[in-house]
Amino acid sequence: MRERHGELLRETKETSIECAVEIDGSGRADIDLPLPFFGHMLGSFVKYSGMDVRLNGSGDIDVDAHHLVEDTGLVLGGCVSEALGDRAGIARFGHAYAPLDESLVRCVLDYGKRPHVTYEMDGLRGRINDFDVTVLQEFIRGYAQNAGISLHLDMIRGENLHHIAEAAFKALGLATRQALAVTGTGIPSTKGTL
Ligand SMILES: [Mn+2]
Description:
The chain is an alpha+beta fold. It has a single domain, classed as Imidazole glycerol phosphate dehydratase, domain 1 (Ribosomal Protein S5, domain 2, 2-Layer Sandwich), CATH 3.30.230. It is about 35% helix and about 30% strand. The chain has helices at about 35-50, 65-85, 135-145, 160-180, and strands at about 5-10, 15-20, 30, 50-60, 95-100, 105-110, 115-120, 125-130, 130, 150-155. It has a four-stranded mixed sheet with strand order 1-2-4-3, covered by helices on one side. The two termini are about 20 Å apart. The mean pLDDT is about 95. It binds manganese (II) ion. Manganese (II) ion binds near residues 40, 162 and 166. Its EC number is 4.2.1.19.
């Protein structure tokens, strides 16, 4: 099988992000971001996705975390899309429930190049240290947009913000691992193209 590898460098006046992805990895995350909680969440996603991801990012976090979190999603999603090429042979669909103690989140997705996000995470509001966890939605949107996925993320229940967020990123990783598994040879679409 072709090596499924993607890399991107994106520099704007707001952020600078460099990223490399191996889809067929071992869940190794080498992440350097000035947002420790967000880095921890990305590490969870990567771990359960089975991909290897190296990502270095910096940006105008003195404004707020919004730009860097959103742009990290765009760049990581772009790397994954590049790595997947024409997406021949992938399972395409994936779904997972991830519990973390009292919290439970469900992720259902389709890597079929139809970007869409339904984000029903109403309990994920507040701050962890100085980090506003509502901004995690910007990562999800950016990632879905550039990875080309239709994504439904639903919080079933939860109390602790750290647990809710981490359950969401684990569910995204688990569902991604399923969807990107190579299970066939052809383009997984009745249209014959994605
Ligand atoms: Mn944790």
